[in-house]
Amino acid sequence: MYWNEIVGNTLIVLGVAMMLIGVVGVLRFRGFTMKVLSAAKIDTVAFLLLGFGVIFRSGIGWFSVKTLLLLFIVLFGSPIVSSQVLSRARQDGES
């Protein structure tokens, strides 16, 4: 096994563990705002770990470039989307 496979597998396992911890965390919170906040943060971090794990496993190439582009879109898009969801929920009286 090469070092890039070891690092990639480690990042993928950490990403999956982060998602499982996030699901438990979301289920434990009571308020809608806290659920959305924790889901957005955990999903972003877990997706980044999974993405970087896939990049390390695949090596340098077009697939890695496409995956990096997707990671940057999610990194910048997820906080904006969760902010808009919370803003709309506050307008509708949901907390």
Concise structural overview:
The protein is an all-alpha fold and 95 residues long. Helices cover 87% and strands 0% of the residues.
Q: What structural class should be given to the helix and strand makeup?
A: mainly alpha
What is the overall shape?
elongated
Element order, helices and strands? HHH
**Cα-atom radius of gyration:** 16 Å
Task: Kindly state the number of beta strands.
Answer: 0
Low-confidence stretches: none
% residues in beta strands? under 5%
The helix content, as a percent range, equals over 70%
Taking the sheet with the most strands, its summary is: none
- What is the distance, rounded to the nearest whole angstrom, between the alpha carbons of the first and last residues? 50 Å
Q: Taking all residues together, what is the mean pLDDT?
A: 88
Q: Helical element count? A: 3
Domain count: 1
Could you describe the 3D structure shown?
- The chain is 87% helix and 0% strand.
- It has one domain (3-91).
- The protein is mainly α.
- It has helices at 3-28, 32-58, 62-91.
- The chain has 3 helices and no strands.
- The model has no long low-confidence stretch (mean pLDDT 88).
Write the layout of secondary structure elements.
Blueprint: H1 3-28, H2 32-58, H3 62-91
Task: List its traits.
single chain, 95 residues, mainly alpha, 3 helices, elongated
